[in-house]
Amino acid sequence: MARTTFGRGALAALSAAALLALGACSTTAPEGSDAGSGDAGSGDDLITIGFSQVGAESGWRAANTKSIQDTLTAENGFDLKFSDAQQKQENQIQAIRSYIAQGVDVIAFSPVVESGWDAVLEEAKTAGIPVILTDRAVDSQDETLYESFIGSDFVLEGEMAGQWVAENFDGQGIKVVELQGTTGSAPAIDRKEGFASAIAGTDIEVIDSQTGNFTRAEGKTVMEGFLQAHDDIDLVFAHNDDMGLGAIEAIEAAGLTPGEDIKIVTIDAVKDGMQALADGKINYIVECNPLLGPDLADIAKKVIAGESVEKRIVVKDEAFDQEAAVAALPTREY
Ligand code: GZL
User: Fold this and answer.
1) Which ranges of the chain have pLDDT less than 70?
2) Domain with residues 8-151+290-315, CATH architecture
3) Which CATH number fits domain 154-288: 3.30.10.20, 3.40.630.10, 3.40.50.10490, 3.40.50.2300?
4) Which residues line ligand 1 (CB under 6 A)?
5) Three-class SS string for 185-220?
6) pLDDT tens string 294-312
């Protein structure tokens, strides 16, 4: 099912319809399937799914966790085992090994960083447990190690942010500082790449770039350092809203006006970021839709039923200026 052509509303409706259809014929494990046969002690007709979440580092992550926990419920045919890795890869590897030992029916996770997964994914494959990636990618060369990867196009998100900056500020010789996401993570690598490609050939210069690990506190600390090191910052490109909100605190503490003295462009479009955009403290936000629960449930049921699934499902994103944020806020789901 090509998801790149659907808007979020249509996608949600489609996924809900798909879930209802699947739910109607999957409340009892299909004849001969091994759904619910995991030794994980779940009900005998539920799909036992082990999910390893990155952590709870940002508003985006909270919305993503809520979408997964609200969708992978017993009434939707799942027995969800959920773990929070506190942004540590070793915790995710330990959780995945625990799910293998429990004999779950399917494993899903959002890899905190791209590298270092082949060994544990080989163990899941040897155990005959299918794996689904959500949100972030792995750099494994062996695509048989996972059934599907559901997530946004982070390079495109970086390009959309960079294109707005280029369209509005090329020719003014502006200086940009970049708050990068978690070092080694797919969104940090790809958003940086996309932004750089979009401003290539302009007179826009990135004068400093450092990770704020996707958190508000670290974004504030890094921005404080940027303000001490540079007196000519015109714009902040933050890889997520939370680091942008931390930058706002640092800019205001320095006696400057965010959104005016120093422009701010971020990615995610969670409620706190959209409110700052509506208030004029952020100037532009590229969305990264966290509501991946319905897609994950849909793909998991198809995998357990032995149906073929798309290897890559790209979640469609949009972008917001101040006017669009004011209009969207009253009905925003996250
Ligand atoms: C993107 C996701 C990123 C968000 C951050 O899909 O992995 O991680 O942009 C979150 O807010 O912490």
Assistant:
1) 1-44
2) 3-Layer(aba) Sandwich (3.40)
3) 3.40.50.2300
4) 57-58, 60-61, 135-136, 151-152, 187, 214, 240, 242, 267-268, 288
5) CHHHHHHHHHHHHHHCCCCCEEEEEEECCCCHHHHH
6) 999 999 999 999 999 999 9
